[in-house]
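Dissemination and training. As part of the outreach component of the grant, students in the summer workshop were shown how a complex can be specified as a set of sequence lines and then modelled as a single object. The example used during the hands-on session is reproduced here so that future cohorts can follow it. Participants entered these lines:
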Amino acid sequence: MNVPTMAEMMAQGKQPEVLFWVGSAGSYDERAKKITKAFVKILQQAKVDFAVLGTEESSTGDAAKRAGNEFVFQMQALTNIEILNAYEVKTIVTCDPHSFNTLKNEYPELGGNYKVYHHTQFIKELINDGRLSINASLKGKRITFHDPCYLGRANDVYESPRDLVKRLGVNLVEMKRNKNRALCCGAGGAQMFKEPEKGNMDINVLRTQEALKTNPNIIATGCPYCNTMMTDGVKFHEKENQITVKDIAELIAEANNL
Amino acid sequence: MDYLSSVLFVFTLVIGVGFFATNVRKLIRNIKLGKKIDRTDNKSARWKNMIRVALGQSKMVSRPIAGVLHIIVYVGFIIINVELLEIVVDGILGTHRVFQPFLGDTLYGFLIGTFEVLALLVFISVIIFWLRRNIARLKRFMSQEMTRWPKNDGNYILYFEMVLMSLFLVMNAADVSFQQAGVGNPISQYVASWLSGFRVEQLHTIETWAWWLHIIGILIFLNYLYYSKHLHILLAFPNTFYANLNPKGKFTNLESVTKEVKMMMDPNADPYAEPEASSGDEMPEKFGASDVADLNWVQLLNAYTCTECGRCTSSCPANLTGKKLSPRAIMMKTRDRLEEVGKNIDLNRGVFVDDGKQLLGDYITPEELWACTSCNACVEECPIEIDPLSIIMDMRRYLVMEQSAAPQELNMMMTNIENNGAPWQYSQMDRLNWKDE
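and obtained this result:
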């Protein structure tokens, strides 16, 4: 894939329109890398002039912060801000709501001021600007959308992912708990990196149970961590042959034959 | 004029209000034990938030049954208390229905009639609330933390309201001239018919007793507030005014950490430099919270405001899946500890003497704290904008930064971030490998 880095751009004296913040999951996690690539294909189709930081990117520090380690978080934040500001980055887009939240809300006080988009918001803007269209090629499919906490409740973004899902021509069916009342997938607050406390069920099992009640063909998400949790949940319920868990970027890339 | 009863009334009033004022002072002192936080910005948004959420009850109706019943009790409570004004004036002057001649029979009758209808509606709503707690046994009222005092407290409040509403109606029903006038008694006329067997003097005695018990009941209820979850009827207003207006995902950045990290990253900083001269024996700032005094005053106000409705806990993913964490219990435990600290200060003439206890460990366990997904469901659910998550995060910070007591897997995750810029053990140099895979 042709993915320019900020360093390469700078060497050519160019400033891209937007920085794509890939995030740690998007860079290393096998499942999340597919989302990253799908989004890159969309950016390329819409002829967006973008770049990534590549090996200069480092964890936003979100997971460390939610675990309570303000030191590690601020070390990460200040280092990242130094790099972002050196490249004079103005606009950032990311597929990870955790990076989105941290960059948008927690970096400004530390000296990092950027316009930050979640990829669903960015894609919606591309459509509004006439730079991209979505083939409504998933007609007849039932999709339910799981709201990532750090996109939804944390930042009140509920409509742009839904708008994109509807453009796929599908039948969007809401779970009983949705939008600001959606149930967490269980990964946030650094839970992704540890075993859960003792209880009678895993959170992702409960959330997928709620998703299964909508009888969907596809469970759509907008977060690599939610994706992992929901995929595991579907496997727990032994439904992986009937139901797929997909990021909205992947659904759009597929619909547009990218 | 019956001077004795006027004197007795004023005496009762002064005792009741005076005792309440003492408790309010204690409440304010305890809240001020918290750390400073500036929530005076953006006043117009704060007023709007308070009017919408506290006065307008906007978040209550997300659960329609409880929401509508609550609004009836709330509106009834506020409006019926207008009648309190007349009771106080009558009590002091020894008059009887002093506003009636001023307002004229029609207006006065309309007002009292409205109060009576509301009183009946409140009575019915409170009965339904009682049934929900004790017969239908809604799950959120049956949790572990809702036994003993918290359970009884909830019921006592309902009994209080039933009794106060009944006394108001009986008082009107036994008022012979009021019933004869026949205006403003849409409800009490039926109660009056049950009293028809009594003689006029007996009715007068009943009226006097009901009148006295009603006002004494109100004063007792007022003083009960400080010891009860019912404090929310007052504190919901400041609590929503001082609520966090930022996006819920925005957590505070600890300034003390920023200073240290900036110094560490500054190539010109002298690592052996003496720390900046501080004023004498000042303790270095503690990271995070292990006791109530480490929390900020808004968090402590939150604790006193919590009315233990349990909407937070009933939407908490950790609690729903059987973990020990309950956001409501976090608030209740914070209040319990704060009360304990307050009593300690009272006993020791204004200073806190170490009692070998703290919020962390003695009240809230690490197991509860580590079960949180920081999903903000509890914050979103709270009808009066209490923020249990901020307390959980502050206590996690203490566990991690002061005690290095994170679960082992989290320590590994944090070490990875420090060493190679990702929560997993991958080299930063491999960060862009995906593009060629």
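Chain B has two domains: 3-31+63-237, 255-267+284-425. Students were then asked to discuss how this feature might be tested experimentally.
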